[in-house]
Structure formats: C-alpha cells, structure tokens
Amino acid sequence: MSLWLQERRRRRRFSERATTVFEALVIALVIRSFLFQPFNIPSGSMEPTLLIGDYLFASKFSYGFSRYSLPFSPPLFSGRVLASPPNRGDILIFRHGRDDFIKRVIGLPGDRIQLIGGVIFINGTPVERHRIADFVGRDPCRPTPAGAPLVRVVRWRESLPNGVSYDTLQCSSGVNFPDETGVYTVPGDHFFMMGDNRENSDDSRFPDVGYVPFENLIARAQLIFFSIGDGKSAWEVWSWPLSARWDRLFTLVR
Predict the structure, then answer these.
(1) In Å, what is the CA distance from 190 to each residue of 46, 69, 140, 216?
(2) Structure pTM?
(3) In 10 A of CB 254, how many CB atoms?
(4) Are 166 and 91 in contact (CB under 8 A)?
(5) Cα separation of 209 and 100, whole Å?
(6) In this structure, are residues 130 and 157 in contact, taking their beta carbons and an 8 Å threshold?
(7) What is the pLDDT of residues 168-210, one digit of tens each?
(8) DSSP label at 41?
(9) SS3 for 200?
(10) Does the pLDDT of residue 145 top 80, yes or no?
C-alpha cells in the first residue's frame, strides 16, 4: 500500500472521528439548551425538599425560552419565546446576577404577599399549615462541618391555595424578620420566590433578590438523579457506598 493511500485513509478516519465528536457536542448543546439540564444543590435554602448534595434534572421547555436558557446567556433577544408562566408552588431555577438560584414560586403577578408569625398570607388569606414530625439531621439553620451532631428543627406542612403541599423548616421563633414582613405587591411579569428553609434562604423577601422577572426563569426542577451527603462530591466514587443517599435517587421534585 502506497504512503499516499495510507495518509488518505488516516485523514479520512480523523475526519470521521472529528465529525462524530462535533455531532455529539451539537446534540448535547441542544439537549442542554432546550430540553433538560443537570443542576446540583450547593446550599440548604430548599431543605427539607432539596438537600445539599442533590443532583437533579430540570426541564428547560417548561416556561419557554429566554436568553438565560442558552449557555453563557448571549443577548440575542429579550423576553421569552413559547412562554408559559409557572404555577404557584413550582420549584424552579432562575438567574440572579451571575448566579443561578433555586426556589419555590409563592407569589404570582398581582399577588399581595406577607408573612405574619412565619405564616404566609396570600392576598390577605393565610396559607394552611400544620406541624408535623421535627426534622432530624445536619443543622439546616447554619453552616456546620461534616460529622457535626444531628439537630432537631421544627417542621411544617404547608398547602397552597392550588393544592400544592410541601414541608418547610422553621429555625427561629417566627417573631422577627424574615418571619414578620410588610406587604409585598408582586409586579406584572414578576414572581415572588421563597426557599422552604425559611430562615436560611436568600429570596424575594430580601431587597438583594426581590421580585424575579419572568425573563430570568431558566428551568423547572423535575427529578433527583443522584444525591450524596457527608460533604462529599459526586466524583468521589469511593465514598458512594457510605455517603450516597440511595433512597433519594429518581425522586420527583415537588
């Protein structure tokens, strides 16, 4: 076989491999931008619903698409395409500054939201809640090192007007901000977000977050596909047998 023919075949193989890699990257980009994107939970603001070390898939198509749906958020257009507003109680990811936050939708455009004694009032009506068994685990109220003693925290079961129910944590007595607030009136095309870990969540109650524009919504949290505790990372495969939370795998996010 001539050297010319060998070189031609070598270039053809390289071209085929490069094409395969390029096609795989395009498919991954399309899936990430328009279908599903993985996220991990770095903080305890959504405990007990979502734990530090949870890894989840979020659907990008649930609310339509904005510039924040795309990698690096290029300013190609404003507003949303194929827009569909979220429902009260949805857990979603949104862009805040350079960071992505994950919270629960509490207030819709035009709603009046207030907290009195830790109870949410929506348009003057208190959200139904009742006390359930205390949360027992890693301290959700403040940063703690791995291996710290377990704590017990008050837990409530809340039910929104549309029937969505979920658990929340109450770290404090509920007599000061952010459990006692003025009235927030949600502007048009904005949403009022809160974390389920009420005293350990930077959310719409605070001016630095405020009302979240519809354009800033990225995706709706759907499914936990992996979870690991004890301060471990998913790439630490050797720690999986003892630290992975196997009972949380493939749990729907509600």
Answers:
(1) 20, 17, 29, 9
(2) 0.87
(3) 12
(4) no
(5) 12
(6) yes
(7) 999 876 667 788 999 999 999 999 999 999 989 999 999 999 9
(8) -
(9) helix
(10) no
